[in-house]
Amino acid sequence: MHKSKSFFQRYFLPVVAMLIISSITDLTAHNLPLINVTGRNIISLDGEWQIIVDPYEAGFYDYRHKESSDGFFRNEIQHDKTQLIEYKFTSEHQLKVPGDWNSQDPKLFYYEGTVWYKKDFKVTADLTTRLFIYFGAANYESIVYVNGKKVGTHTGGFTPFCFEITSLVKKGNNFVVVKVDNKRHLSGVPTVMTDWWNYGGITRDVYLVKEPKTFIQDYFIQLKKNSFNEIEGFIKLDGATSKQKVKIEIPEAKIDTAFETDDSGYVKINIPVKNLSLWSPGNPKLYDVIVSSGEDKIKDKIGFRTISAKGADILLNGKPVFLRGISIHEENPLKGRRAYSIKDAEMLLGWAKELGCNFVRLAHYPHNENMIHTAEKMGIMVWEEIPVYWTIDWKDKNTLANAENQLSEAIERDKNSASVIIWSMGNETPVSDERNKFLISLSVLARKMDGTRLISAAMEKHTNPSDPLTQIVQDPFADYVDVLAFNEYIGWYDGLPNKCSEVKWKINYDKPVIITEFGGDALGGYHADKLTRFSEEYQEYLYKQQIKMIKKISQLRGMTPWILCDFRSPRRVLPHYEDGWNRKGLISNKGIKKKAFYVLQKFYKELETKK
Ligand code: GCU
Fold first, then answer.
1. Are 341 and 271 part of one and the same domain?
2. Residue 91 falls within a domain, yes or no?
3. Of 161, 193, 211, which residue constitutes the final position of a domain?
4. 239 and 176 within one domain
5. Do 135 and 52 fall into the same domain?
6. Which of 53, 310, 391, 422 is close enough to 383 for a disulfide, judged by CB 3.0 to 4.6 Å?
7. Is residue 11 part of a domain?
8. Are 369 and 245 in the same domain?
9. Where are the alpha helices (DSSP H) in 385-535?
10. Which residue stretches of the chain have pLDDT < 70?
11. In the prediction, which pLDDT does 227 show?
């Protein structure tokens, strides 16, 4: 006989169970990377966002410093004059998105803390589609709320994140609130010490993305490693619960191939191809690629090329190539702000082209997509790096998880970009067992996600006290990379420029070598003799001596001197000469090309004519 359930069993228990489950499982959405976001059905949320600067995170913690779960919007609507409202988003306080806050408001120039952002948006479409909110990047920790409900969190200042908000939006008026906090942390990636400005804010584009119930979430479409006649990769649908038909069309290559996914919406692809026009600096050919499935269709422009290392050579499309490069920070030096736009990318990469570059090192973190795609169109190869920089907390497993997450987000985003040829696991990290394990884990992840590109890291050289003129490059991590890269500052931090002619190099690896940094500071427009520090003449002399020296390194196959432009750094406080700028740029923050610019340009012209 069916015993009726007591009130307790029928009502109280399920509620308690739900509360326990929800408290255990974070009900926020997971970050769902959407490849090629600008090729999708998007609505831009760029423009003015209302803000509240909140150095004590009063919108997040109460006066007992206990987390209050409903954030700044809890008193959003004032019902009557007697109601206490202590903070409110208003149009008097706004910031432009995309854009760092430091360069938009003098009061925020040095600010490191929380800023709350708010944007109203309307939803008109029928709700049969799925709706996502996509952030190109926000530095450094973000919490996203839609209509007062927490949607998701993200850590890392230089990679995209995206959450589904379908169930949270309603027809008509909606609003998104984002808590962005750029405080540095010892366990962060990067850690507390960096030689670049800690620009905070929603620094890249924000989009609403409309998708059908089942849509193309991700795909990898590249030439198979060392092959010119096989395109391979995968297509991944989101929302599939049974096998689905997907199609790849590359009309100009006469490709129109269908595949069937598994029940989860995933399928590996392999397409025979011949006579592709291979992407290269001299031929930055991009093909129209259309991926379709059911009601979803996404268009992309993809270049096909191979990159590999063989002995001490780097082979692009099977032929040895020398990487005539320069390092670049993601900053518009003329405006003193984070770079984010196509125009910023065209300016920076235009200067690199003018220098004679076929390669750029995008230091020390993944740059915005405009840099990657503009490089692809201009025929410039790219070194892409994650901010595993200097003294990372190697023992903290959360730090490793954070670094792995940023690496996977960078690879997910750029794995179809022909311009990207090298994934860098970090910069100038001090050798230790923990650091070696940490970097090896990253390199294993990178190879698992993308077997087509080269792996490296900017390492360091050292000397034995008994023989200070022999520069030794030896690093346990060197056995795990395809390209041996290192930074050296002979003539700036290490002796004077003439020391370049006195040193010998000991690099016992049969691998391609890239010198990822050399250089020295010069205040643009300051002229003196060639041994006066911070003069253009000193930097010019240093470049001449450096070039003479590195030409003697037999495995040298590339270089990315430090750095294209002067850039802001809180560590550079020498009055008059630095004033908050690192002056190693070949171009000053006023756009002056210093004398050393022409030394490197002349060398690259000689290399180009010699090849
Ligand atoms: C280091 C570091 C750079 C830094 C440079 C410098 O090698 O990699 O991030 O800016 O030296 O000291 O100017």
1. no
2. yes
3. 211
4. no
5. yes
6. 422
7. yes
8. no
9. 397-414, 433-449
10. 1-28, 69-77, 125-127
11. 96
Whether residue 330 is found in the same domain as residue 254: no
pLDDT of residue 192: 98
pLDDT at 510: 97
How many domains would you assign to the chain?
3
The verdict on 31 and 128 lying in the same domain is yes
What pLDDT, on a 0 to 100 scale, did the predictor assign at position 327? 99
| Closest protein CA for atom 6 of ligand 1 | 195
| Tokens (6 digits) for 208 | 């609403």
pLDDT, residue 550, reads: 96
Q: Which residues contact 471 (CB under 8 A, 6 or more apart)?
A: 461, 462, 463, 488, 490, 503, 504, 505, 506
**pLDDT tens per residue across span 290-307:** 999 999 999 999 999 999
The pLDDT score that the predictor gives to residue 74 is 56
pLDDT tens readout for residues 450-460: 999 999 999 99
- What is the rounded CA–CA span in Å between residue 277 and residue 280? 9
- pLDDT for 17 equals 46
C-alpha 404 – ligand 1 centre gap (Å): 23
Full domain range(s) for residue 578: 318-610
Contact 375, 349 (CB under 8 A): yes
Q: Output the ligand 1 site: residues, CB below 6 A.
A: 195, 364, 427-428, 487, 517, 562, 582, 584
373 shares its domain with 520: yes
Rounded to whole angstroms, the Cα distance separating 328 from 252 reads 34
* Atom of ligand 1 lying closest to residue 521 CA: 13
pLDDT at site 87: 76
The domain that contains 235 carries what CATH number? 2.60.40
Output the residue whose Cα is nearest ligand 1's atom 3: 195
Neighbour-count burial of 190, counting CB atoms closer than 10 A to its CB (0-12 exposed, 13-18 middle, 19+ buried): buried
pLDDT for 77 equals: 67
Domain at 34, CATH number: 2.60.120.260
Establish if 313 belongs to a structural domain: no
Test site for ligand 1: of 191, 195, 362, most ligand atoms within 8 A of the Cβ? 195
Mark 312-328 as b/e (b = at least 16 C-beta within 10 Å): bbbbbbeeebbbbbbbb
Instruction: Flag whether 299 is in a domain.
Output: no
One domain, residues 202 and 275 = no
